[in-house]
Write a structure and sequence with these properties.
CATH class of chain A: Alpha Beta
CATH architecture of chain A: 2-Layer Sandwich
Radius of gyration of chain B: 43 Å
Low-confidence stretches of chain A: none
Strand content of chain B: 15-25%
Helix content of chain B: 40-55%
Largest sheet of chain B: 6 strands, mixed
Strand order of the largest sheet of chain B: 16-20-21-19-18-17
Number of strands of chain A: 4
Largest interface: A-B, 27 and 24 residues
Number of helices of chain A: 3
Strand content of chain A: 25-35%
Low-confidence stretches of chain B: 129-158, 357-378, 463-518, 735-745
Mean pLDDT of chain B: 76
CATH class of the largest domain in chain B: Alpha Beta
Number of domains of chain B: 7
Shape of chain A: globular
CATH topology of the largest domain in chain B: Heat Shock Protein 90
Strand order of the largest sheet of chain A: 1-2-3-4
CATH architecture of the largest domain in chain B: 2-Layer Sandwich
Distance between the termini of chain A: 26 Å
Oligomer: heterodimer
């Protein structure tokens, strides 16, 4: 699974594809204060990104991939 | 170029031709629904075909054309002249692309902008309601507006507001890059809302932009509640700074040109101080000092003051950022005092300096007239002024060229025309007469000075030009400009300007180019399509030449024998050899025309094998070899069905399931090899699988059950003969009839089809190891090699394919077994049949002086039969014609041929007579 959902933490792995956006959205609807761990994420489809933006998600760990962090920081901060 | 692409190009030309014709017809009968439907079908098919290849420009235009035609067909748009023009333009464009693809020039990107424009022009004819429904119409207003402006899709002249989001360090790096002579482009990528549904990942595309320097995302300002969020509507913009060339970026974004805007970025526009204003502008002391230093040209002092000011300030402040930039500018271009001044002055307002305004402002200060100029005109925008500067610079360079070409007057007129157009564009109609006067003088003197003088006067009036000139033109540089741009003045402040006028000129060029194509009327293609009937006629004619040239040796013989003129006979023979050579070459050439590579048949197999193996749950690897082997078109076409049957059989009966294969120690993936090769005048096709093979005992039992062989036969028949029983009519080993095989028609049909083109088929199989089927086909059906035999003073032909050998058998060696004559030949018993007896000629076969019978051993299916004839004659190539009319029913003959001496040769069908 590209996103592993724990009780209050979503762990993003590798490439998170467009199919995950629905799951992510419904998980965030149920866990509005859920935390995001993007450390091992290498790319995420913009549909997921839009969910994160719209939910104003709490990102506890930014991607280790510095370039991805740069991109995400420009819109998630 | 592969065969598929070849075919596509040839078909596309036909379609384009067809579209052109239909449009012409529609002009006469605009209400003809049939024509309209046909036209739609052409465009639709062409678009579909283009989708097979990677030609986004072509597909884009055709897609727009298809949408438009669909509306026309449904009566939502009425047919009009305008519509036909647009469509013809678009089709000319597609034709142009086809030419380029054929010339091996595919994949270049200089048509992206045109394709977008043509597509937009086509779509603009579709009513708005329709357009909104269409996903491919950009819903992004910005991109739309830009396109409507008629500016090339990917380049516009305007500032890039999001540059302020770029980190200062990235801007510093980019600034250095430009100063080192690199270029910098800002890409604003606004994907359409529906792009996710089209499988796009715009974020990934943006991240992968070539030579990426900085990237950022801008989201919509407001987002709906999570409950009502539709995550699949893209509302993100992607911003990219890249050091790649414009061409590279255009190439990279060629699939979404309407969603992307690329700006050229100049070094100065990167100078964007930002940070905490800290209570507003309170640095007047510093500004006054700094300006003083600047005016005195004391760069070192200015630098020192700036450095100490920077040390005193919090690095987060706006002023610190501005000072960092100031120091950078002082390092890189201390001579640019105006720019330095405006940067220093920006500390008074804490606003990003407006570089282009700066130039105007300083002019204003010196030349009050300008104000009236500005007021008088419709206030040219910054872009206009920049563009105007570039144009003036260009024209000046052109005028200053010191060569004396014969077309100088044309050049002068062109310059004057450009100046007049500029004046018109700026609303300065009053200047036009003075330009005209200058032009007249210039033409009179044949010198450019009067126009230059006008330009000087204009400059001094407007001061548009006098500031150190900065234009570095991206495209279409005159060589002189290149030289000029090397001078130091031009190095910095490289406000890259794509001259609007140049753009429009190229577009005009392109349009005329399309127009010309229509006028030229002749589209040169490398291949022509010819009706097969015409080639058949050629084939027949060459056949007749072959026959009549064969009459010459007879004539030579007669000249010698009957008239005793040996000399003439020799000359006829010499002439014959010349005609013979030409005729043979001609025959060969015509055969070449009919030749097709076997890949035409092979092409469909990968898909077939994939589909069937999926259905059967088998893993199959298909290997195709010798696809470029060529053979006659008819032969190739006749092969298609038999091969499909054979491959289905191999997949269904031959190859085992992966598990069964593993049990028998084979790789779980089965392998089917189709091999084509040419051997002498035969095409050999082998279909091999490594499946379970055919068990001869099963075949024997089945054949016996079906009454095809008797018990004795079942005991005696060899394994190889047994497995070839599968070719017999009505034979099937499959227990269950499936949609794939088992109806008992397969192999029989295969054999008939192969034999129909004078081919032979042979099957070999090793139990557990696999099966191999070999099909031998003649290269061409047109010429048949026959052996001529004589019987009862008549001559007959026997196809050489069927001849095994010719022997003379002593009459004493012929034994009669149960009323059948036989002879032992090479340790085999061969049944002998008299040709006279078979043809019901009441004569016995003649023997030669040594009391030997001439026996022609012929292959009949899988059997071998000895045909007793009176004598053997030569072998020769004949054009065999099938029997027609009442003779068509005669199974004893496969056809007739005309001999060189005018006699008719009947070609025997050995299977039919034995």
């Amino acid at each position: 699974m590209p996103i592993e959902f724990k009780s209050n933490l979503a762990i993003f792995q590798d490439v998170v594809s467009v199919e995950e956006a629905d799951d992510l959205l419904s998980w965030l609807q149920n866990n509005p204060s859920g935390k995001m761990n993007l450390a091992s994420c290498t790319h995420l489809h913009p549909a997921n990104l839009q969910v994160l933006i719209a939910a104003n998600a709490n990102i506890v760990k930014w991607p280790n991939d510095k370039s991805l962090t740069g991109w995400l920081a420009s819109v998630l901060n | 170029m592969n065969a598929l692409l070849d075919q596509f190009l040839s078909e596309s030309r036909d379609f384009l031709q067809g579209i052109g014709e239909k449009l012409m017809q529609l002009e006469q009968f605009p209400d003809d629904a049939g024509l309209m439907n046909e036209l739609f079908r052409f465009v639709h098919t062409l678009k579909g075909n283009s989708g097979l290849f990677d030609f986004p420009e072509m597909s884009r235009v055709l897609h727009a054309g298809e949408d438009l035609m669909d509306c026309v067909r449904n009566g939502k748009v009425s047919y009009s002249q305008d519509l036909a023009d647009q469509l013809l333009d678009a089709m000319d464009f597609v034709g142009l692309l086809c030419d380029e693809i054929e010339a091996g020039d595919a994949g270049n990107t200089h048509h992206v902008a045109e394709s977008v424009k043509l597509a937009d022009a086509l779509r603009s004819l579709i009513p708005l309601i329709e357009a909104n429904k269409d996903f491919s119409v950009s819903s992004n207003s910005q991109a739309q507006v830009l396109n409507q402006e008629g500016v090339g899709a990917l380049t516009v002249l305007s500032s890039v507001p999001w540059l302020t989001n770029v980190s200062e360090q990235a801007l510093f790096d980019a600034y250095d890059h430009i100063l080192n002579g690199g270029n910098l482009h800002a890409v604003t990528y606004t994907p359409i809302k529906e792009c996710f549904f089209q499988g796009d990942d715009p974020f990934y595309s943006a991240r992968m932009t070539p030579a990426l320097v900085w990237g950022g995302i801008k989201s919509a300002d407001e987002w709906p509640q999570l409950q009502s969020l539709n995550a699949y509507n893209c509302s993100l913009d992607f911003h990219v700074l890249s050091t790649a060339s414009k061409e590279t970026l255009v190439e990279y974004y060629r699939y979404v040109p309407e969603q992307v805007v690329v700006h050229s970025i100049s070094a100065l526009s990167l100078v964007i101080p930002r940070g905490n204003p800290n209570g507003g502008p309170v640095y007047e002391d510093f500004v006054t000092d700094a300006l003083l230093h600047l005016r005195d040209g004391n760069i070192a002092a200015l630098k020192q003051a700036s450095e100490s000011m920077l040390e005193l300030s919090n690095p987060e402040l706006w002023i610190s950022s501005a000072l960092r930039w100031l120091l950078k500018l002082l390092d890189s271009c201390p001579e640019r005092k105006d720019d330095l001044q405006s940067l220093i002055e920006s500390l008074r307002t804490l606003e990003v300096p407006k570089w282009q305004n700066l130039e105007l402002k300083s002019s204003n200060a010196q030349q009050p007239n300008v104000e009236t100029f500005v007021n008088k005109t419709s206030e040219p925008s910054e872009e206009d002024v920049a563009a105007l500067k570039t144009i003036f610079f260009d024209q000046r360079q052109i005028l200053l060229l010191d060569d004396e070409p014969t077309w100088k007057s044309g050049r002068l007129k062109a310059v004057a025309g450009t100046l007049i157009n500029c004046s018109k564009a700026l609303g300065n109609e009053a200047d036009i007469p003075s330009i005209k006067v200058a032009l007249e003088q210039a033409l009179l003197l044949n010198e450019s000075t009067p126009i230059l003088a006008w330009m000087d006067a204009y400059d001094s009036l407007t001061k548009v030009e006098k500031v150190i000139f900065t234009g570095v033109i991206v495209e279409n540089l005159e060589s002189s400009l290149l030289v000029a741009s090397e001078s130091e003045d031009l190095l910095i402040e490289a406000q890259e300007v794509v001259v609007l006028e140049k753009n429009s000129e190229t577009t005009v060029d392109e349009i005329t180019k399309f127009g010309k194509r229509a006028e030229e009327g002749v589209i040169s293609t490398k291949s022509i399509k010819v009706d097969q009937a015409k080639i058949d006629r050629l084939m027949n004619l060459i056949g007749e030449i072959v026959v009549s040239k064969n009459a010459l040796p007879y004539l030579a013989q007669r000249a010698e024998d009957h008239f005793g003129v040996r000399e003439l006979s020799r000359e006829i023979k010499a002439q014959y050899s010349v005609i013979n050579r030409i005729a043979e070459e001609m025959q060969d050439a015509i055969m070449q025309v009919r030749m097709m590579p076997i890949s035409f048949v092979f092409q469909r197999f990968p898909r077939l094998v994939r589909d069937i193996s999926r259905k059967l749950g088998k893993e199959v690897q298909l290997v195709l070899e010798g696809e470029d082997t060529e053979a006659d078109k008819n032969i190739i076409e006749s092969l298609a069905d038999p091969l499909i049957h054979i491959i289905r059989n191999s997949l269904d009966h031959g190859l085992e399931t992966p598990s069964a294969r593993q049990v028998s120690g084979k790789h779980s993936m089965g392998k089917i090899t189709i091999q084509a090769s040419q051997e002498a005048d035969q095409v050999i096709i082998r279909i091999m699988d490594d499946g379970k093979g055919i068990d001869p005992s099963v075949i024997k039992r089945k054949a016996y059950e079906k009454g095809m062989i008797d018990e004795v036969m079942m005991e005696r028949i060899s394994d190889i003969d047994a497995i070839n029983l599968v070719f017999a009519a009505g034979f099937s080993t499959a227990e269950v009839v499936s949609d794939l095989s088992g109806r008992g028609v397969g192999m029989d049909v295969v054999r008939t089809a192969v034999e129909g083109v004078n081919g032979t088929i042979r099957l070999e199989s090793q139990l557990g190891k696999g099966t191999s089927i070999q099909i031998s086909l003649p290269l061409s059906m047109a010429v048949t090699k026959v052996m001529i035999v004589e019987s009862d003073r008549q001559i007959f032909g026997v196809p050489m394919d069927h001849v095994v050998e010719t022997v003379r058998v002593p009459k004493s060696s012929i034994h009669t077994i149960k009323n059948n004559q036989t002879a032992v030949l090479r340790d085999r018993i061969i049944p002998l049949k008299g040709l006279n007896a078979l043809l019901d000629i009441p004569m016995s076969q003649l023997v030669n002086d040594d009391d030997e019978v001439a026996v022609l051993v012929a292959r009949v299916g899988t059997d071998v039969v000895g045909l007793m004839v009176d004598d053997f004659k030569e072998t020769m190539e004949v054009i065999q014609k099938p029997l027609s009319g009442v003779l068509a029913g005669l199974s004893a003959y496969s056809g007739s041929a005309l001999m060189g001496d005018g006699s008719v040769l009947m070609v025997l069908n050995t299977r039919g007579i034995v």
